[in-house]
């Protein structure tokens, strides 16, 4: 079987811990090379993960004719430059979330990929798991009644890591960029439409380059439905979503990160009845890689078009603007 040959642009922890193993476990992909600006680091990582080639610069990897697609887990402010350079070299791009720092940046990235005839995808791995198709089917069936709202949270606590790129404002640091983008993405996906306005409040920490260490918000959708969310990097760990209807609700205890077989299951409450919807333990990163491969080969349309990244970034832009200005921001999609 033909394999999509992946290059990894950087030795970020998310690549080493999750995405590279996911590609290796996929049906369609192999990891052929990895690059770092430190050759020793890329060589050590390649040896550890059994990757055939290691490069000491990103340029060398992009120019490798034996690479079909690139995964970009670089700091957020570098996504735009290296996505565009990868596209110009004819490589498909899977870019870590958030796609960039502004919706205008993401538009440039998507346009560059379209002009080059390559695929672009934002790496929201969770949404490739089939459990979300089941959740959407339950919502659409009317079992939990009319949808009244969604509540999503994603928080973790790591304020003492002073060298963390998440704490550098110019590099796209902050809780919203890092984890708040997940509940925003999930609500858009589950409701199947774009929000109209947002109002947020954030804790901008002087100790962390004034990035948002915590943000809470209200995201307004048409049909009298809203997402309430919070995200943070200085709070106890949570990653949950609840869908509330007039007759019942759906609880997703581990909405984005599913480290065990049981953590992917979700609960449905209707009246006095409760059931656990069991879902298979599948590698979300593998499913994400397969989706890219089939799209790259022209066998299937991508499950999430590149334009989705632009739409999600518009919501992120509005949330940050609202928090800085302490005002309600209308979103022009």
From TrEMBL:
Keyword check for Transport: no
Pfam families per the UniProt record, alphabetical: GFO_IDH_MocA, GFO_IDH_MocA_C3
Segments forming domain Gfo/Idh/MocA-like oxidoreductase N-terminal: 4-122
Superkingdom of origin: Bacteria
Entries under InterPro entries matching the protein: Gfo/Idh/MocA-like_OxRdtase_N (IPR000683), Gfo/Idh/MocA_domain (IPR050984), GFO_IDH_MocA-like_dom (IPR055170), NAD(P)-bd_dom_sf (IPR036291)
Entry keyword set: Oxidoreductase
SUPFAM superfamilies: Glyceraldehyde-3-phosphate dehydrogenase-like, C-terminal domain (SSF55347), NAD(P)-binding Rossmann-fold domains (SSF51735)
Ranges of residues in domain GFO/IDH/MocA-like oxidoreductase: 132-251
Stated family: Belongs to the Gfo/Idh/MocA family.
Database matches in PANTHER family: OXIDOREDUCTASES, TRANS-1,2-DIHYDROBENZENE-1,2-DIOL DEHYDROGENASE
Protein's UniProt name: Gfo/Idh/MocA family oxidoreductase
Organism of this sequence: Paenibacillus germinis
């Amino acid at each position: 079987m033909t394999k999509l040959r992946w290059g990894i642009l950087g030795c970020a922890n998310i690549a080493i811990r999750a995405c590279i193993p996911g590609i290796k476990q996929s049906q369609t992909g192999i990891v052929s090379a990895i690059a770092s600006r430190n050759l020793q680091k890329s060589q050590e990582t390649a040896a550890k993960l059994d990757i055939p080639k290691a490069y000491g610069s990103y340029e060398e990897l992009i120019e490798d004719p034996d690479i079909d697609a690139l995964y970009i887990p670089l700091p957020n402010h570098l996504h735009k430059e290296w996505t565009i350079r990868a596209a110009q070299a004819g490589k498909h791009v899977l870019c870590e979330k958030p796609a960039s720092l502004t919706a205008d940046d993401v538009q440039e990235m998507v346009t560059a990929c379209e002009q080059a005839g390559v695929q672009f995808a934002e790496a929201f791995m969770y949404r490739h798991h089939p459990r979300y198709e089941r959740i959407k089917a339950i919502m659409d069936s009317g079992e939990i009644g009319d949808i009244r709202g969604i509540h999503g949270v994603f928080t973790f606590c790591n304020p003492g890591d002073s060298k963390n790129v998440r704490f550098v404002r110019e590099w796209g640091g902050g809780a919203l960029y890092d984890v708040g983008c997940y509940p925003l993405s999930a609500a858009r996906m589950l409701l199947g439409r774009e929000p109209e306005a947002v109002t947020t409040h954030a804790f901008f920490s002087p100790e962390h380059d004034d990035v948002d260490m915590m943000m809470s918000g209200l995201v307004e959708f048409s049909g009298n439905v809203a997402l309430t969310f919070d995200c943070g990097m200085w709070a106890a760990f949570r990653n949950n979503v609840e869908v509330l209807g007039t007759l019942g609700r759906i609880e997703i205890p581990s909405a984005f990160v599913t480290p065990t077989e049981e953590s992917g299951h979700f609960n449905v409450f209707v009246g006095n009845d409760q059931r656990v919807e069991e879902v298979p333990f599948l590698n979300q990163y593998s499913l994400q890689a397969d989706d890219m491969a089939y799209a790259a080969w022209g066998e299937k349309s991508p499950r999430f078009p590149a334009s989705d990244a632009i739409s999600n970034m518009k919501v992120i832009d509005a949330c940050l603007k609202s928090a800085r200005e302490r005002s309600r921001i209308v979103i022009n999609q």
